[in-house]
């Protein structure tokens, strides 16, 4: 399995079209493409993408190898290809897209990392809870009866983005700005696969969608720089560590570096908002789980706003969030490029190969998860998790480049779910039931519509 092992088998290839490989199939079938490829070819296969190719790996022990044990061979995030090709013009040298783990990455991680650590969280959670409280209270829902149709995505996005802007930049962000960023980000993610083709065409040549892509990037930049300009350092009392990121960045980085970091961090709102929206959708479809969550929330809080200390007494709600992140991980793969020849599970991986760790396939692996398609938060109960492979659940990635805001995201998501459950009861919308998707285009096009009605105590 390791780099010292010998290659013993050939790798199956997925891809049927000349020049384009499997891209047409991938764009057309999205979800089923990956599940079928995994079922047909096993845990490791080669993806022919026409202009480029990838080795896709789908077992927790592969994640262990690529992201942890042999991580030094996989420090390169894949150059100007893959997800990175789509995000690079947007986040540039921001922490999430810095390519090679050199001193440059280390100093950025040292700049950003400490502000998100557990200790720092304690000081900001109560303020976060108040912000979330104000937002969830205003969701439009029927006082009684069958419930009002509610697309939870924009509401959750507003709660998450407002909290993030307030805590990171000490600045308010308007609903209009949030909608502009969301639409632009949507546009960028929809361009992802085409962007991979475009990455081999010189940037000065016209390419379908390229102009709109540039416009979308301009919109995000415009909004983020506008918010940062409104920064009010006097609000630092609530989250001094997070606000310090930007102040330190101002001292250490040029204007471009500051912009890249500010954009890179605010975009973290998207995956979090989508995860929480899917969690609400899953609760709506599983009334018994929702009931168990009501019992926990009501027993601990009895209607009051949660505090940092309360979260440890609300483990079931956290398990709901973890299970939603398992079933629909918003970052559905992470990409690396092999620096030297390697062998993964008996398959030769030559230097220069792009390797993608398929998070969503690992999360649905039938050899690891019992009935993987079933929504079952109890699978994260300590007694059922103890013997599970440590890389079986990796929505935040793993190893040194794992998500810098993992605990922050879990805390904010936990708070939003708790507040929503205190106030509302959710049921599937009678006419609009979205198909649960691995977030191939992060934001579900048709939204996540639910029937929501106010709870008596809410
Ligand atoms: C549910 C929410 C989130 C998910 C599922 C998520 C997922 C991920 C994943 C999978 C990675 C690793 C990428 C790789 O290995 O190539 C990552 C890295 C990162 N995330 Fe998140 N993320 C979330 C929220 C956030 C938030 C809220 C922020 C910012 C406030 C953020 C900032 C970052 C940064 C800066 C990195 C790069 C870290 C490094 O390379 O050193 N993420 N995230």
Q: How would you explain this protein's 3D organization?
A:
This protein has one domain (13-454): Cytochrome P450 (Cytochrome p450), CATH 1.10.630.10. It is 50% helix and 9% strand. It is built from 18 helices and 10 strands. Strand 2 and strand 3 form a beta hairpin. Helix 6 (152-169) crosses helix 7 (175-190) and helix 12 packs across helix 15. The chain is globular and about 60 Å long. The N and C termini lie far apart (54 Å). The model has no long low-confidence stretch (mean pLDDT 85). The structure holds protoporphyrin IX containing FE. Residues 77, 95-96, 109, 164, 264-265, 268, 271-272, 275, 330-331, 334, 395-397, 401-405, 409 line the site of protoporphyrin IX containing FE. Belongs to the cytochrome P450 family. GO terms for molecular function: heme binding; iron ion binding; monooxygenase activity; oxidoreductase activity, acting on paired donors, with incorporation or reduction of molecular oxygen. Keywords: Heme, Iron, Metal-binding, Monooxygenase, Oxidoreductase.
